[in-house]
Amino acid sequence: MRRLLWVLAWIGVALWSLFAWGAYGLLDLFGDVAVRNADIVSDHPETVEWLSWGLAVLRSLGLGAIVFVWGAVSLLILAVPAVIGFILPRAHPVEQHPQWQGSSGGTYASGQYPPVPGAPPRRIERR
User: Fold this and answer.
1) Measured distance CA(4)–CA(13) in Å, rounded
2) Which letter does DSSP use for residue 40 in this model?
3) For residue 111, what are the CA distances in angstroms to 89, 104, 117?
4) Using one digit for the tens of pLDDT, what is the confidence trace for 61-76?
């Protein structure tokens, strides 16, 4: 289940990246056209220069905003499976031997849990 979540998250990031890339390209294209054609608004050279500069600044800020939003949303998409992964139980629970009762006062085949270090291994007798 966790792998499925991660695969879906990476697919979501890929689709979001394509969308952001398209928005970046369109803003770059239309911003560049607006900057180059600032002289349509006025014939006064100083006004054209200020307008061209202002449109270039807006274009640059917009491109930076697109990159920032792309990164933030991509991190958010990837955070979802990480958070859900902490909530979901493990796929394969650890199997315990039926004689093990736990680490606090449990039994181990010889009565001690865990076995004493350095003690000889228990022998299995044939019947």
Assistant:
1) 14
2) G
3) 32, 12, 14
4) 999 999 999 999 999 9
